[in-house]
Amino acid sequence: MIKRSNFLILLTLLILAVLIVVLTRANAPPPREEATLTIIRGGAVLQIWTLEQIKALPDSKLIKNNQSASHQAESGVYSGVALSVLLEQTEPGLLTGAAEIITRAADGYTASFSVDEIMLEGNIIIAYAKDGQPLGQMADGGSGPFRIIIRDDVFGTRETKYLTEIEVD
Questions:
Q1: Which of 64, 96, 65 has the alpha carbon at shortest distance from 80?
Q2: Which of 126, 127, 103, 125 is nearest to 113 (CA)?
Q3: Distance between CA atoms of 6 and 8, rounded to whole angstroms?
Q4: DSSP single-letter state for residue 71
């Protein structure tokens, strides 16, 4: 009889513990999207930008419609910061004498841009939102948290999704 009552007490405590864990997780705030973007020159890290820091810079918007031969066209209003502004905020005159800018993504994708493309006003932004919604992480099926958007690239082939690093070369 004592063994049975001990078993019931333990079972009740176990059920209560599981309920507490489930209810605690259900009421927990959603995980924060940790996003950083590293700027590099000559192999040295110049700055690591957070999402909050980038959002504090002057906002740029691009209305973009990417055409594709392999899948449905993608369109939307992207919000972000001009790539030229971010690089100038990283280090004034950073683009002076640079040959190209290389973008790198979490999935290994890279693309390069000339300084002239970057300096063309309103041409390239580092987007963090589309149609007012965060781009989301690669692990969640998103295209961010940062993404390069190019106004003058109809097919978007160099629009680096999952952007993590920019190198000034």
A1: 64
A2: 103
A3: 5
A4: S
- pTM attached to this predicted model: 0.78
User: Amino acid identity of 38?
Assistant: T
- The single residue listed with the structure tokens 């192999």 is 43
**Cα 107 vs. chain centroid, distance in angstroms?**
12
Q: Which residues pair with 168 in a beta bridge?
A: 41, 101
The residues, any chain, with a CB within 8 Å of residue 151's CB and separated by 6 or more, are: 62, 64, 122, 123, 124
Q: Each residue of 128-165: b (16+ CB within 10 Å) or e?
A: bbbeeebbebbeeebbbbbbbbbeebeebebbbbbbbb
Q: What is the pLDDT of residues 8-55, one digit of tens each?
A: 777 777 786 666 666 666 554 444 447 999 999 999 999 999 999 999
Kindly list the distances between the CA atom of residue 139 and the CA atoms of 56, 92, 107, 116, 142, in Å, as whole numbers in the listed order: 25, 34, 11, 34, 7
CB 68 within 8 A of CB 155: yes
Spell 44-77 as b/e; 16+ CB within 10 A means b: eebbebebeebeebeebebebebeeeeeeeeebe
Residue type, 94: L
